[in-house]
Amino acid sequence: xxxxxxxxxxxxxxxxxxxxxxxxxxxxxxxxxxxxxxxxxxxxxxxxxxxxxxxxxxxxxxxxxxxxxxxxxxxxxxxxxxxxxxxxxxxxxxxxxxxxxxxxxxxxxxxxxxxxxxxxxxxxxxxxxxxxxxxxxxxxxxxxxxxxxxxxxxxxxxxxxxxxxxxxxxxxxxxxxxxxxxxxxx
Length: 186
Prior knowledge:
- This protein has about 190 residues and is mainly alpha-helical.
- The protein folds into two domains: about 5-80; about 85-185, no CATH class.
- The protein contains nine helices and no strands.
- It has helices spanning about 5-20, 30-40, 45-55, 65-80, 85-95, 105-115, 120-125, 130-150, 155-185.
- Helix 1 runs parallel beside helix 3, helix 5 (about 85-95) packs across helix 6 (about 105-115) and helix 5 packs across helix 8 (about 130-150).
- The chain starts with 5 loop residues before the first helix and ends with a helix.
- The relative contact order is 0.07.
- The mean pLDDT is about 85.
């Protein structure tokens, strides 16, 4: 029988407690292993809070590991103080309407503003309603992309990040070569 560490045991205990709400549910040791493998890249407390929160919902069926993990990511967003799309929009507008929002310098706010045309464009906007819709769509897209990367299994995520780093390095090297060629030719 496999020995589990304290964190894994806490998750197993929480899952076992949740199972008591589903009397017909069968759950073998392999199920625990599968759930633990899905949860490996998240803080234990977020997983435990997620399991407990789901238990309070009164669900009809035992939740798959992905549902528990998605809830844990939502809790992580709260813990990391990641704004909602509407809070991010309010933050972007606070650049011109003080007081400045605590999220004004958040990287996702900046990416979304750049995604709709940049800070200058937004500051000169004549149609804030349309820009709000575009901003929220851009913010949600960037946040979802970030979440998708985080939700990948650790090994897959590492391989993707390595390829991104290789691509960035190649771009930097090409830019340096281009600059050097320009200086040599002058």
